[in-house]
Amino acid sequence: MPEPVVLVATMVAKPGQEELVEKTLTAALPAVHAEPGCLRYALHRKAGTTGEFVMIEKWASQEALGAHMKGAAMREVGIALAQALAGPPDMVFLDAVPAGDPDAGAV
């Protein structure tokens, strides 16, 4: 059985582009949630900011994440945000450290 993939992607909007970034990302959520292997795709904003967005993701496998990255929803997001972000998303991949309650102790 493949290992789930957990990542945190941070995106920073250029000044004046915060609303466009938020609307684009929230509009993509239903399509991404319906993708095979999507276990979590949750948009957050860094507290105290208006333009720093954090996506917490969990995919059933590396293959599911790969399909997501090449899928229609991400193509649309990429086109819409091509000029709206201060730079490419910062993607941090995480390895769980099993400890405590299995449900409460992992994403």
From TrEMBL:
Q: Does the keyword Oxidoreductase apply?
A: yes
Task: Specify whether Transmembrane is a keyword of the entry.
Answer: no
Q: Which residues form the ABM domain?
A: 5-93
PROSITE patterns reported for this sequence:
ABM
What this protein is called in its record is Antibiotic biosynthesis monooxygenase
Coiled-coil annotated residue ranges, if any? none
What InterPro entries does the database record attribute to this sequence?
ABM_dom, AI-2_Isomerase_LsrG, Dimeric_a/b-barrel
Which UniProt key words apply to this protein?
Answer: Monooxygenase, Oxidoreductase
Q: What is the lineage of its organism?
A: Bacteria, Bacillati, Actinomycetota, Actinomycetes, Kitasatosporales
Q: At the top level of its lineage, which domain of life is listed?
A: Bacteria
User: Pfam families attached here?
Assistant: ABM
Q: Name one GO molecular function term.
A: monooxygenase activity
